UniProtKB/TrEMBL annotation:
<feature type="region of interest" description="Disordered">
    <location>
        <begin position="18"/>
        <end position="47"/>
    </location>
</feature>
<feature type="compositionally biased region" description="Low complexity">
    <location>
        <begin position="25"/>
        <end position="36"/>
    </location>
</feature>
<protein>
    <recommendedName>
        <fullName>Lipoprotein</fullName>
    </recommendedName>
</protein>
<feature type="signal peptide">
    <location>
        <begin position="1"/>
        <end position="21"/>
    </location>
</feature>
<keyword id="KW-0732">Signal</keyword>
<feature type="region of interest" description="Disordered">
    <location>
        <begin position="73"/>
        <end position="106"/>
    </location>
</feature>
Length: 180
């Protein structure tokens, strides 16, 4: 009896295996092999790794290595931010400042009057709006002075340079920001 059950089970397994292949009269074929090694390699590119934007402090440090005369570079905190925009809605995520030759050393601490301010936003749109806002104020009220504005490659960083800085130095800063 055991032999009969074993034979029936074996026959059933063989029959079902043959039935999976479709027509039992066809012979099984070997799996297709690629014509070349190149076809066997996956051709999709790996997903791009999103680069985290630089902080304002990191941008100031990179600009200091460019030998532009930046001194006293320091990151602002919510307690030292003169604009009270750090971390606030529609404000910047990080902020740092530095002194430049031509800046007013007697100007308000951490202000662009001393030479340079870097503000980094969560989006490029917010950075552009901030730049447009400042330029609009200065156009309406020349007493507020002038500034050069340079944006980082990803658009989230706004580098503000005092209009009292010599144009030749401002051009060097522009080139350095473009190479960040």
């Amino acid at each position: 009896m055991r032999k009969t059950v074993l034979l029936v089970v074996t026959a059933a397994l063989i029959g079902s295996a043959a039935g999976c292949g479709g027509d039992s009269t066809t012979t099984p074929q070997a799996p297709a092999t690629p014509a070349t090694h190149q076809e066997a390699v996956q051709t999709t590119a790996p997903p791009a790794v999103a680069r985290k934007p630089l902080t304002a402090e990191a941008i100031v440090k990179k600009l200091q290595t460019a030998k532009l005369g930046l001194t006293h570079g320091v990151a602002q905190t919510e307690d030292t931010d003169p604009n009270n925009l750090l971390g606030r809605p529609n404000g910047y995520a990080t902020r740092a400042s530095a002194e430049l030759p031509g800046g007013d050393k007697a100007g308000e601490k951490y202000s662009v009057d001393r030479g340079l301010v870097v503000e980094v936003f969560d989006t490029a749109d917010l950075a552009q709006r901030r730049s447009d806002y400042i330029k609009g104020l200065q156009a309406e009220s020349p007493i507020l002075g002038t500034e050069w504005h340079y944006r980082t490659a990803d658009g989230t960083g706004l580098v503000r340079v005092s209009g009292n800085v010599k144009p030749s130095l401002a051009k060097k800063i522009e080139a350095a920001v473009a190479n960040l």
